[in-house]
Input
Amino acid sequence: MSESSVASDLYAVIGHPVAHSRSPAIHTAFATATGQRLHYERRLAPLDGFADTLAEFAREGGRGCNITVPFKFEAFTAAAERSERAELAGAVNTLKREGGRWLADNTDGVGLVRDIVVNAGVPLAGRRVLLLGAGGAAAGVLGPLLAEGPAELVIANRSVDKARALAERHAAVAARHGSALRTALLSAPGAAFDVVLNATASSLGGGAVPVGASVLRPGCLALDLMYGPAARPFLDWAAGQGALGRDGLGMLVEQAAESFAWWRGVRPPTAAVLAALRADIDAGAH
Ligand code: NDP
Output
């Protein structure tokens, strides 16, 4: 089949595992809301078979795909061209087929920023922000967070050398937006932040909240990138300290909306999709 005959409508999420992914439901809801015709499915790639899976998807006419764990770095390499924010993140979560090549973006950070600034109504400009973690998720969100112009952004991680490497890569962006970018050990992150973002895998692993309550300024936003039942201990901790707790579901929907807008040229409304997804998860449905 030629690439152009079928594929204008074929999209997928590629990962390992991928069965849990909410992306098909989200993109199908976006398509319905915007009147776009597309089919979005899950593709399980073998751990050593991302490149082959992507090539097969292209042969079938795939127009675009989301990339999830553990392939965000391989997707970076597979792309012929990358957006500035993908270059900065060193990882890719969205690919778009154009002219027989894969173009790449990373929409995680802009998705998180939209969820904070638009959905939660919390501005980042001029604020003190604490980013916990220095893994893939932290790398993906740091550039767009700095682009909002926080007064100060501290990256705190168990392995402080990883935080330092991330900060060095983002030094120019921080300077451009007038933000003081610092690093800290997770055990000494500083106190009284306006926004605290948990981008560690602590909730995913069922672990305790990795910092003490002194990081929270009263009434601040405390957001865990995790969502579902695993985020509950973090949300309870935030509420118990008088902070505004938020999980990563809004980020998930907003990063998907950004991918959809890039692929289809139309921005989908997100509020109803987020509400439906939350109700579904709260009901324990799969
Ligand atoms: P990585 O494995 O790349 O990074 C893990 C990070 O967490 C590292 O900084 C690591 O520290 C730290 N860490 C792991 N366990 C603990 C712990 N028990 N206590 C303190 N720090 C810990 O993972 P990702 O960055 O890909 O994912 C991080 C989180 O973000 C996950 O919960 C994931 O579900 C979520 N996520 C949510 C998204 C969304 O759309 N809502 C999108 C992407 C991710 P060290 O370097 O010292 O090992």
